[in-house]
Task: inverse folding
C-alpha cells in the first residue's frame, strides 16, 4: 500500500473519464485543464520561438537576406503576441490551475466549467490570429503595442482585435476563477498569511488581470471603431489624439509586465526554500513586496512614453515612481539570497534555474532602472538596449521560472523522475546561450541600433552575428527540454515518491505521485509545521 | 536531492485529521455562497474598468 489516503477515498485515482474526448475536451478537472494550458503554452513557445529564429536569421548579417521588410515586421509583432499571450501567460495559468487547489487543500477550482471555457477559448483565438499570416494582406505588423495610426493600416486588424478580445475574456475568467478559489476554497486552518507564496503571487496577479485586461479590450475596441466605424478616438484629423492610445495601452501594458513576473516570484519562493532546506526568509515581507510591486505597477505606465513629449512634472513623477519599484524588488532578491544563506543547499535542475533566475532577472532589473532615468531613456528609447532589457526580464526571468517550476513539479504530475543529467544539460546550454543571445544586444542598443528593423549599419555586424549564434543555440537547447519532458512523462523508469524532494514542504507533497485525479475531497486540517514557510509569526 | 524511494517515513496525509461529514456540508454551503459573492464583485470590477477606459479617453479629449 503506497498511500493510505487512496483507500479511504480521500484521493481518488480512478475518477478520470475513460474517453479521450471527454477527458481532454470536456474536462472540468483542474489538473487536466492545467495540463492542457501547459501543453498549449509549450506549443506556442515553439511557434513563437520559430519566429524568433527567423528574426535572428535575417539579422545574422547586414543587408536583406531572407524576407521582405513588411514580413519581418509581421514576425516581430507575432513573436511578441504569441510569446506574451500564448506562451508565458497560459503557462502561468496552467501552473496555477495545477498547483493552487493542491496548495490550499481545495478539491478543485471554484468554477470548474468556466475553467474549461477559459482554456478552450485560447486555441480558437490563436488560430484566428496566426491565420492572418496566410491572408492576402498579411498579419499585423505594427508591433504588439498596436499603436495607431500604424496599426490601423493593417488589413488584419479586425482579426487581431477579435483574437485579443478572446484572450482577454479567457484571462478575466481565469482570474475570477483563481480569486474565487483562493478566497473561498482554502482548507480550514489555511489562513491567508499561511498560504504558500506562489498562491499569494497568483492572488495578486489575478487582481491585476481583472483591472487591466478590460482596459486593453477598451483600447483595441476603439482602434476597431476608428478603422471601421468612423470614430476618431485616435485620429487628430477628427479631434482625437494617438498619444491617448499610448496612455491607455500602457495603463494595461505595464501591469501586464508584472502579470508575467509576479507568479515567477512565487515559483522561485517555493523552489529556493526546498533546495536550501530552510523556510523562506521574511515570508510576510515577500508577500507585502509582491503587493507593493502590484500597486506601483499602476502608477508607472508613462515611463514607456518619455519620448512622446510629456510635461516635465509628469516625466519626473513617472521616473521616481518607476525607481521606487526597485525597493520591494530588492527586498525579494535579498530574501531569496538570505534563504540560501547558511542553508544545506543542493543543486538539482529546479534550483539551478531558480539561482539563474535570481542573478539574471536582477541584471534585467538593473537595465530597467537605467531606462527609468528620463535623460538616459531619450538615448535608449526604441533601441536594442530595450530589447535586451525586456528579454532578460521575460526569458531569464519569467521563462526560466516556468522551466524551473516544470522540473520542480513534473514528478508530482507524472509520477516519474525526469533525467537529471539531460535536465542539467538543458540548463547549462540555456544559461550560456541565452547570455550570448541577449547580452550583446545591450551594446548594440548603446551604440544606437534601433529595434524592429530588418537591416542595419555594418558597424553593428559583429554583435548581431554573435547574438544570432546565441539565439540559434538557445533555440536548439529547448529541444533538449522537449526530450526531457517526453522521457519524464512517458518513458522514465524511476518512480517519484510522494514528497519527491527531500526538503519539500506544503500540502501538494502530501498527496501521492502522480497526483490522483481527485484530491482533497475531504478538506485536510492544516498544521503550521507542514507549511513551506514554517511558523509565520515566529 | 530527490527523496529516497521506499523511505519508511509516514506520509503527512496519513497523520492528518480530517473533517467530519456534517461539518463538511456546512463548509461546502459556505464556500458556494462565498464563490457567488466573489464572482459578482469581480465581474462588476472588470466591467467598470472596461467602461472607465472609454470615459478616460472622452474626458482627456
Result:
Amino acid at each position: 500500500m503506497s498511500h493510505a489516503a487512496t483507500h479511504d477515498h480521500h484521493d481518488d485515482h480512478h475518477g478520470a473519464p475513460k474517453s479521450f474526448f471527454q477527458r481532454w475536451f470536456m474536462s472540468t478537472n483542474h489538473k487536466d485543464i492545467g495540463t492542457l494550458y501547459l501543453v498549449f503554452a509549450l506549443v506556442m513557445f515553439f511557434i513563437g520561438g520559430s519566429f524568433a529564429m527567423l528574426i535572428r536569421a535575417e539579422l545574422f548579417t547586414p543587408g536583406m537576406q531572407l524576407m521582405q521588410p513588411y514580413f519581418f515586421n509581421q514576425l516581430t509583432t507575432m513573436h511578441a503576441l504569441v510569446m506574451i499571450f500564448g506562451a508565458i501567460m497560459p503557462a502561468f495559468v496552467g501552473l496555477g490551475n495545477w498547483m493552487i487547489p493542491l496548495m490550499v487543500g481545495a478539491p478543485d477550482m471554484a468554477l470548474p466549467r468556466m475553467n474549461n471555457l477559459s482554456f478552450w477559448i485560447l486555441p480558437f483565438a490563436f488560430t484566428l490570429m496566426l491565420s492572418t499570416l496566410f491572408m492576402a494582406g498579411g498579419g499585423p505588423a505594427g508591433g504588439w503595442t498596436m499603436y495607431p495610426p500604424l496599426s490601423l493600416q493593417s488589413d488584419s486588424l479586425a482579426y487581431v482585435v477579435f483574437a485579443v478580445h478572446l484572450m482577454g475574456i479567457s484571462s478575466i475568467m481565469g482570474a475570477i476563477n483563481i480569486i474565487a478559489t483562493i478566497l473561498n476554497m482554502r482548507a480550514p486552518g489555511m489562513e491567508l498569511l499561511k498560504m504558500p507564496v506562489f498562491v499569494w503571487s497568483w492572488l495578486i496577479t489575478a487582481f491585476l488581470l481583472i483591472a487591466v485586461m478590460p482596459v486593453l479590450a477598451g483600447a483595441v475596441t476603439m482602434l476597431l471603431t476608428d478603422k471601421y466605424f468612423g470614430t476618431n478616438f485616435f485620429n487628430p484629423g477628427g479631434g482625437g489624439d494617438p498619444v491617448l492610445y499610448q496612455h491607455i495601452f500602457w495603463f494595461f501594458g505595464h501591469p501586464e509586465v508584472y502579470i508575467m513576473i509576479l507568479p515567477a516570484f512565487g515559483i522561485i519562493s517555493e523552489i529556493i526554500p526546498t533546495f536550501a532546506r530552510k523556510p523562506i526568509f521574511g515570508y510576510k515581507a515577500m508577500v507585502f513586496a509582491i503587493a507593493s510591486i502590484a500597486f506601483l505597477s499602476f502608477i508607472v505606465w508613462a515611463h514607456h512614453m518619455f519620448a512622446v513629449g510629456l510635461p516635465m512634472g509628469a516625466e519626473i513623477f513617472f521616473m521616481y515612481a518607476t525607481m521606487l519599484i526597485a525597493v520591494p524588488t530588492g527586498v525579494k532578491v535579498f530574501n531569496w539570497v538570505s534563504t540560501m544563506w547558511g542553508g544545506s543547499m543542493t543543486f538539482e535542475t529546479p534550483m539551478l534555474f531558480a539561482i539563474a533566475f535570481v542573478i539574471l532577472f536582477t541584471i534585467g532589473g538593473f537595465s530597467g532602472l537605467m531606462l527609468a532615468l528620463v535623460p538616459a531613456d531619450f538615448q535608449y528609447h526604441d533601441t536594442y538596449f530595450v530589447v535586451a532589457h525586456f528579454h532578460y526580464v521575460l526569458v531569464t526571468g519569467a521563462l526560466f521560472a516556468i522551466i524551473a517550476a516544470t522540473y520542480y513539479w513534473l514528478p508530482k504530475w507524472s509520477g516519474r523522475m525526469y533525467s537529471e543529467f539531460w535536465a542539467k544539460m538543458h540548463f547549462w546550454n540555456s544559461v550560456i546561450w541565452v547570455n550570448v543571445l541577449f547580452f550583446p544586444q545591450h551594446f548594440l542598443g548603446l551604440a544606437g541600433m534601433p529595434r524592429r528593423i530588418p537591416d542595419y549599419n555594418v558597424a553593428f555586424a559583429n554583435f548581431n552575428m554573435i547574438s544570432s549564434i546565441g539565439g540559434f543555440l538557445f533555440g536548439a537547447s529547448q529541444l533538449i527540454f522537449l526530450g526531457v519532458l517526453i522521457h519524464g512523462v512517458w518513458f522514465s523508469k524511476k518512480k517519484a515518491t510522494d514528497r519527491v524532494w527531500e526538503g519539500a514542504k506544503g500540502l501538494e507533497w502530501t498527496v501521492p505521485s502522480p497526483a490522483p485525479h481527485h484530491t482533497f475531497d475531504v478538506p485536510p486540517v492544516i498544521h503550521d509545521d507542514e507549511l513551506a514557510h514554517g511558523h509565520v509569526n515566529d | 536531492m530527490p527523496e529516497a524511494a521506499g523511505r519508511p517515513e509516514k506520509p503527512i496525509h496519513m497523520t492528518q485529521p480530517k473533517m467530519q461529514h456534517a461539518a463538511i456540508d456546512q463548509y461546502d454551503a459556505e464556500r458556494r455562497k462565498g464563490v457567488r459573492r466573489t464572482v459578482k464583485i469581480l465581474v462588476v470590477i472588470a466591467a467598470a474598468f472596461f467602461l472607465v477606459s472609454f470615459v478616460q479617453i472622452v474626458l482627456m479629449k
Remarks:
- The first helix of chain B runs from residue 12 to 15.
